[in-house]
Design a protein that fits this description.
Elements (H helix, E strand, L loop, with lengths): L7 H5 L2 E4 L18 E4 L8 E4 L2 E4 L11 H4 L12 H7 L3 H21 L1
The structure holds iron/sulfur cluster (SF4) (2 copies).
Length: 117
């Protein structure tokens, strides 16, 4: 399945993410141990998701080890590995007018939580 990086999973799903202190320690798939990861709960903003001039992007996709992560390897029910993600396709097309407002509100809440504790 081809992920469009629409950010849906980065907010709604419980996701296993790599701890920051392990970013420079992971060289092979075997280095991605249980110690190196933590859980991002569902309906929580992933700390690696940022709002870059209105476009939501994952800030750790460029690491060479990212292809070992559950985020990268996650797949939904699609016809084959080259099929586009239907949810992402919708969000990148017709759904963007709903989704962007939703995400922008969540982004504001996320930052208010960080600022106000
Ligand atoms: S690590 Fe990146 S792809 Fe995974 S949930 Fe966080 S922002 Fe999304
Ligand atoms: S819904 Fe699909 S396109 Fe969007 S982040 Fe999840 S897998 Fe990727």
């Amino acid at each position: 399945m081809i992920c469009y990086r629409c950010s849906h999973c980065c907010y709604w799903f419980m996701v296993t993410i790599v701890k920051e202190e392990y970013f420079d320690k992971i060289k092979t798939e075997n280095d991605l141990t249980m110690d190196a990861v933590e859980i991002k709960e569902e309906r929580v903003w992933c700390k690696y998701l940022i709002n870059n001039l209105g476009k939501f992007v994952c800030t750790i996709h460029h690491y060479s080890w990212f292809k070992f992560t559950p985020c990268y390897q996650f797949t939904q029910m699609e016809e084959n590995k080259d099929s586009p993600c239907r949810i992402g396709e919708w969000y990148r097309g017709e759904g963007i007018k709903y989704y962007d407002d939703f995400l922008l509100n969540k982004w504001r809440e996320h930052n208010e939580t960080k600022i106000n504790g």
